[in-house]
Amino acid sequence: MNNRIPKAAFFDIDGTLVPYDTRCISQTDCEAIEALRRQGTLIFIVTGRHLCDIDNIPFPVHGAVCGNGAQTYVVNYSCAHFCERDRFVLVEGHPIPRQQAIDIARIITDNQIPAAASTATTTLFGHQTQKALEFIQRVNMPSPRNGDILEAALKERIYSFCPFVSPEEEETLFKDVLSELDTSRWCNEYCDINVKGLDKVVGIKKILGTYHISPAEIIAFGDGFNDIAMLKFAGRGIAMGTAADEVKSAADYITSSACDSGVSKWLSYFAA
After folding, report:
1. Cα–Cα distance measured from residue 94 to residue 97, given in angstroms and rounded to the nearest whole number
2. CB-side neighbour CA atoms (13 Å) of 224
3. What is the pLDDT of residues 88-140, one digit of tens each?
4. Which residues pair with 117 in a beta bridge?
């Protein structure tokens, strides 16, 4: 094992840093990531969440890729905590084309589908149901802001939709409006709808270009299907022990679960 310290490290949140049962990143993982940062590694979060929905990462970072690559932020060659959101500068954004966003919002509204929509500044949740709210609580997302998704699509740029539909419902309801868009899932409860060709690697590439870092010089940790491209792209991709076999096969290494502080166990390779 080559334990050369990486120039940058990219971490998924849910199921990677934050276990679904405890809903809290372990102190051991926090300390390991902080130790890595003190050794000179740039630290980034890469998530499907909107920037405003990241409230469970207690350590400072140098930036974040949000919305599965829809929005990429850097903290101007410094680092900041997520409570300091005004220090995060949007360096790249990929909103859904306006008419397609309106078409999707109409389908969501006409069918009363529980769904989230990410704008430039916030995440709105429409047609809330108890089942959807229980899922949001289970994955430790902040309480959603209730809003009119169709009204938002008519007035604002939408970067992603997250309708709570099964794979079968997704195909039936949205197939005619996704010609330039992609859907992805990390669970069966809902899908992410983004601009076609968009994934976490798009944001990572923007960050690497900003800091003049090559893919061979980075590490990435993930557990979901939306992490596969990132794990393949990174010089060293590490899958969590709870990841599906398809995700594990995309990684260079496999560590233990988030509940078992799998991130810090793998990062012990870089311990001084």
Report:
1. 9
2. 24
3. 999 999 999 999 999 999 999 999 999 989 999 888 999 888 887 777 776 66
4. 124, 161
Residue pair 108/115 in contact (Cβ under 8 Å)? The answer is: yes
Alpha-carbon torsion angle 97, 100, 105, 111, nearest 10:
-160
255, 265 in Cβ contact below 8 A? yes
Q: Mapped to the 3 state alphabet, what secondary structure does 125-193 carry?
A: EECCCHHHHHHHHHCCCCCCEECCHHHHHHHCCCCEEEECCCHHHHHHHHHHHCCCEEEECCCCCCCEE
Q: What is the CA radius of gyration of the chain?
A: 18
Q: Cα-Cα-Cα-Cα dihedral of 117, 122, 128, 131, to 10°? A: 90
Which residues are paired to 146 by β-bridges?
125
Predicted TM-score (pTM) of the model is: 0.88
C-alpha 208/C-alpha 27 separation (Å) is 28
* Residue 251: φ, ψ to 5°: -95, 160
